Amino acid sequence: MPVADRRLFPTMDVSRIASVVLWPISVLLILQRSIILGVNGDRTDDFTPVYNAALRFLRDQPVYAENYNTVDPHYLYPPSGTLLMAPFAYIDPERARWLFIGVSVVALIVSAWLLVKLFGFAVSSVAFPAVLFFFFSTETVAHTLIFTNFNSFVLVGELAFMLLALRRRDLWAGVPLGITFAVKPVLAVLLLLPLLNRQWKVFVGAVGVPLVLTALAWPLSVDPMSFVKRTVPYLTEARDYYNSSIAGNGAYFGVQSWLIYVLRIAFVLMAVFSLWFLHKHYRKVDELLWMATSSGVLLGTSFLVLGLGQGYYSMLLFPLLMTVVRPGSVMRNWPAWLGVYGCMTFDAFYSTRWAAFGRALEYNKVTWGWSLLMIVVFCVLLFRYLDLRRERATVEV
């Protein structure tokens, strides 16, 4: 067989080939999700209530006077969040929304960079375009841009906290968490991690930043107490629409209350065991794996058992998914990724031939995705616990 001419058949390693393939696809995917789908919008618009609230705040008008009996998107941010959102109301609504989408895309790209850096990969490696491709292929990222929600900034806060906490920059680690708390406290459960790790300084920024922003926003608001008296009670209710939590999903499908409580308690107990095992056996061996996996357990369980769990919260599970590249990861099995498909797929299951079945699949996919993922994490760790017990019993004999 004749020797190939290297000029006609240049060699290229697999990672280089993957980069060549993924970069143009990822860039076009980002542009399509933001410029086309994001600007087009959809039936749900999370930005308009935020813009209107910011405008009322600047005009010294009541912010928390909405009718919460409707199913329209409501403004639910505290006064500190209103203060942070207020600059967008200085420009017209359409351009303000476009600006918010653009900044959200930048936040998502920064998040991908932080995630790659967190797991020790170079930005020049294939990991960066691979993560970007995965990000923008998911429902959670697509609908965050389409509905124009704050979630991308929450993801940046989560990853910045992890990176700084692992590098023992504890005072700074609490700041990104605190900024997200000032708008929406979805990451509050992550405070258990520095508590278990005895990184007390994290709480200075995590608690101090929202307190300072609240102190600044409170006297500037016309009706701050309405947030406490009207909005907070609404937030504690498990609504039966746009809600993939166990309580919300159960209410929509008419599930008995006792079964909803049993399921919620079961997932909490699974989470307690998973967190205990991770803390005991992983924290000192691989702190990154411990933190990323524990954060996934805390967040995934909170999405299921608390009153409100919306599908696009799933992006906060990206650090858990990224652990697949590390030995000992709970994500190295196919059932885990079946759960990921459920809670992150952009596929729709509405069917014209089997309407009721398709609707049930569509409305349940996020709930069963989160559920399966948390069950898999629990089962993997339980089997490892049983293996350790068996080994100890064998040694003792």
TrEMBL record:
Coiled coil: none annotated. The chain crosses the membrane at residues 20-39, 98-115, 145-165, 171-193, 200-220, 258-276, 336-356, 368-386. Its main location: membrane. Keywords: Cell membrane, Membrane, Transferase, Transmembrane, Transmembrane helix. It is found in: Cell membrane. It comes from the Bacteria. It is a multi-pass membrane protein. Belongs to the glycosyltransferase 87 family. This is Alpha-(1->3)-arabinofuranosyltransferase.
